[in-house]
UniProtKB/TrEMBL annotation:
<dbReference type="InterPro" id="IPR001173">
    <property type="entry name" value="Glyco_trans_2-like"/>
</dbReference>
<keyword id="KW-0808">Transferase</keyword>
<dbReference type="Pfam" id="PF00535">
    <property type="entry name" value="Glycos_transf_2"/>
</dbReference>
<dbReference type="GO" id="GO:0016758">
    <property type="term" value="F:hexosyltransferase activity"/>
</dbReference>
<protein>
    <submittedName>
        <fullName>Glycosyltransferase family 2 protein</fullName>
    </submittedName>
</protein>
<feature type="domain" description="Glycosyltransferase 2-like">
    <location>
        <begin position="7"/>
        <end position="163"/>
    </location>
</feature>
<dbReference type="InterPro" id="IPR029044">
    <property type="entry name" value="Nucleotide-diphossugar_trans"/>
</dbReference>
Length: 317
């Protein structure tokens, strides 16, 4: 394999407690050809001083003059990136020393794939596996989604990130948006999990996001956006089933609010989601399910050839 440059993007905001661990984990990588772009969003603590204490020339520090917020800040890093590949390791996360080398070698070996996503062990998949746009969308809307991983668990081709103009700033879950945006027209590579370490702490934005009604409105609007997109890889029947599942989840959330006597929240959701009352019947019906990988099992798992795995001693490329 050649030695392509990798851009590691690190957004920070008052990250003094964990920033040294995050940077040290990156600098400890066995893969050394990278640039670490740190973009600080007007921290008021000692984050910037701690970043400056590292003297490694691969670290590039940018400080915003105004607070951009999360996704504009991420997009700023994407525009600055010079690497062939791109990954976000935020100021409170860490990557294992072998992680970058593993991810880069995997994605580099599968040039038709636009991103490499980590996934937990599956009895039907012997990773890595190549997932087509249709398989990705059917899995997400009608099966078991490939989005159930932290944003730090994805390596992108930088050219594709720039091609789709980075992350959407219109949705609070823009990391899901970018994955669905890329997956609707590019193959994805699914690889082994536990290469990066996403720190979950009380009070962080991502842990509180789903508690807000606005999150539900925008998430459901995002799903409608992709299902109505002309490039959506699903068939018309599959789209109808996907819309049914979306309505079913919406009513589950609303009825859950009612059961907890949160009637005001329930009414806001009905109005905000523009839900016709007759669609409440979705709540009482089973989820529409379709498995694009039904042909695979522990007896016959989905896998690529050993000769296509870049870590194999019979790697053929």
């Amino acid at each position: 394999m050649s030695n392509p440059l990798v851009t590691i993007g690190m957004v920070t905001y008052n990250s003094e407690r964990y920033i040294e661990d995050a940077i040290t984990s990156v600098l400890s990588s066995s893969y050394t050809n990278f640039e670490l772009i740190v973009c600080d969003d007007c921290s008021t603590d000692t984050t910037i001083d701690k970043v400056k204490s590292f003297k490694d020339p691969r670290i590039k520090l940018y400080t915003n003059k105004i607070n951009l917020k999360e996704y504009p800040n991420r997009n700023k890093i994407i525009t600055l990136a010079d690497g062939e590949y791109f990954i976000f390791i935020d100021g409170d996360d860490m990557i294992y020393p072998h992680g970058l080398d593993f991810m880069v070698r995997m994605l580099h070996a599968f040039p038709t794939c636009a991103m490499a996503l980590m996934a937990k062990r599956s009895t039907r998949f012997y990773y890595p596996i190549v997932v087509t746009p249709h398989q990705f969308y059917v899995s997400h809307f009608l099966g078991e989604s490939f989005l159930r991983t932290a944003f730090t668990s994805i390596l992108f081709r930088t050219s594709v990130l720039k091609e789709v103009r980075g992350l959407s700033e219109d949705y609070p879950n823009g990391d899901d948006f970018i994955r669905l945006k890329i997956a609707n027209s590019h193959n994805s590579l699914v690889i082994n999990d536990n290469i990066t370490w996403w720190r979950q702490t009380p009070g962080q934005a991502s842990s509180n996001l789903s508690k807000h009604l606005e999150f539900y409105f925008l998430r459901q609007r995002m799903y409608h956006y992709f299902l109505n997109d002309t490039s959506c890889p699903l068939s018309e029947d599959e789209k109808m089933d996907a819309f049914f599942n979306i309505r079913r989840v919406e009513w589950q959330i609303i009825i859950g609010k009612i059961k907890r006597f949160k009637f005001t929240d329930a009414l806001k959701l009905i109005k905000g989601l523009n839900l016709p009352i007759h669609t409440i019947t979705c709540y009482f019906k089973s989820r529409k399910i379709k498995d694009p990988f039904s042909a695979y099992s522990p007896v016959k798992p989905l896998r690529v050839s050993f000769a296509d795995n870049p870590f194999s001693n019979i790697y053929s490329k």
